[in-house]
């Protein structure tokens, strides 16, 4: 599933193609969207802003409506020039927004909703900017408080809770725990406020480093951008622990461990030596 950094970059790219330009065409395979368009035509309106909220992407229209989409596992937005060949079959098209220069196509976007300002404020699933790690309004202190409120859960699971910190996904979860030196299987109750603060700061830092202007689609947390030049898509050269089970820890040389964690059975990676359990217990992996 795309993590917050991917959605952020998608929003930035879509914004460059759509912001401030009058909409000349709109189509969708979703009746709820087309009904909204029938009642309040989007053609003639302009896109005011495209923004990410965690893993949600919001397109704000000048008429006051906002389209919220979530990619889950399969969805993606593409931007084409008129007449340019689409890179996915038309049958996967769910949403098209056109202006005089560009055609934005949402392929296999599984969740798409129209909101008014009111329904967006009241929406419990779409996070507000204060809890979005990549937002300028992100409140780190409050995030620490929300994290610590899940005392009897393992931190690796809690980092995935979008209502704690929106935008962190499964790759960043393992990377954040490594960078903060916290074993992902520790109950939150066993970590200090300071450690929770380090985890939140690491989340901000790692996600922000992946939305720089030259960021590629691969998550990079280790080794800087120059390393990528020879192995563009090889995650093993760009991450501390994720996907590196059995390989040597980049800090201490111990083999990286990996195992399934949590109610959603997500895979977690860590270093037993750099991220010890407080009681010295070994977690198999
Ligand atoms: Zn290590």
Major sheet? 4 strands, antiparallel
CA distance, first residue to last residue? 23 Å
Order of helices and strands: HEHEEEEEEEHHHHHEE
Q: State the low-pLDDT regions, or none.
A: 224-232
The neighbouring-strand order within the major sheet is: 1-6-7-5
Helix content percent band: 10-25%
Tell me, briefly, the overall form. Answer: elongated
Strand tally: 10
Mean pLDDT: 92
Give the helix tally. Answer: 7
Strand content: 15-25%
Q: What is the radius of gyration computed over CA atoms, rounded to a whole number of angstroms? A: 20 Å
Give the class from helix and strand content and strand pairing: alpha+beta
Ligands bound, unique: zinc ion
How would you describe this structure to a colleague?
- The protein is α+β, with helices and mostly antiparallel strands and 285 residues long.
- The chain is built from seven helices and ten strands.
- The protein has helices at residues 4-18, 31-39, 117-121, 140-148, 155-158, 170-180, 193-209, and strands at residues 25-28, 47-53, 56-61, 66-70, 76-81, 93-98, 102-107, 111-115, 257-261, 266-270.
- The strands form three sheets. The protein has a four-stranded antiparallel beta sheet. A four-stranded antiparallel beta sheet has the order 2-3-4-8. It has a two-stranded antiparallel sheet with strand order 9-10.
- A hairpin with a 4-residue loop joins strand 3 (56-61) and strand 4.
- Mean pLDDT is 92; it is low at 224-232.
- Zinc ion is lined by residues 249, 251-252, 254, 271, 273-274.
- Residues 249, 251-252, 254, 271, 273-274 line the site of zinc ion.
